[in-house]
């Protein structure tokens, strides 16, 4: 398995949109679009990401296939990392490799991450990289139609 990060290309968005259609992945992520099938909202969201000079975004490839995305954006003046891996790539070490490669490239600290308390896979990836829980929030999740507890994790 080869994992590579590369700059976002417009054709990646079709794959990202397809990944977003997976109901199980939406439940795991929790904080997703109200209607994941709305391509207009998706295109607006990704247009904002791609055109924001403060956002660092990379496409994750595994053996030449688009496996997901990883990016950093500013949230309340603190950089925050987020990632989405298509479900068919889960459990293969791709997320771990992608986060390692991204953290080697993006060195600003502190760096935050937010993760639902029951997303054990993402929590483990982050903890093994040195992230520690520094806060908890509870927000409404469109994917789950419920309030979900979320950990705020920090890497110094």
Q: What does this molecule look like?
A:
Residues 3-156 form the N-acetyltransferase domain. The chain is built from 5 helices and 7 strands. The protein is α+β, with helices and mostly antiparallel strands and 156 residues long. The chain has one domain (3-155): 3-Layer(aba) Sandwich (Aminopeptidase), CATH 3.40.630.30. It has a 7-stranded mixed beta sheet, sandwiched between helices. The model has no long low-confidence stretch (mean pLDDT 95).
Q: What would the keywords be for this entry?
A:
156 residues, alpha+beta, Aminopeptidase, GNAT_dom, GNAT family N-acetyltransferase
CATH fold label: Aminopeptidase
Evaluate the radius of gyration.
Answer: 15 Å
Inertia-based shape: globular
Task: Quickly count the domains.
Answer: 1
The secondary-structure class comes to alpha+beta
Number of helix segments? 5
Summarize the structure.
The protein has 156 residues and is an alpha+beta fold. The chain contains 5 helices and 7 strands. The protein starts with a strand and ends with a strand.
């Amino acid at each position: 398995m080869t994992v590579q990060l590369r700059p976002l290309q417009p054709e990646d968005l079709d794959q990202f949109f397809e990944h977003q259609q997976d109901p199980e992945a939406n439940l795991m992520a929790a904080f997703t679009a109200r209607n994941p099938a709305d391509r207009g909202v998706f295109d607006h969201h990704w247009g904002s990401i791609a055109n924001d000079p403060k956002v660092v975004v990379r496409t994750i490839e595994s053996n030449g296939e688009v496996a997901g995305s990883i990016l950093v954006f500013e949230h309340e003046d603190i950089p925050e990392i987020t990632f989405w891996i298509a479900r068919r790539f889960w459990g293969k070490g791709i997320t771990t490799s992608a986060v390692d490669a991204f953290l080697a490239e993006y060195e600003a600290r502190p760096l935050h991450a937010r993760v639902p308390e029951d997303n054990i896979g993402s929590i483990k990836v982050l903890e093994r990289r040195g992230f520690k829980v520094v806060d908890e929030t509870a927000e409404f999740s469109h994917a789950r139609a419920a309030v979900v507890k979320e950990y705020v994790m920090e890497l110094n």
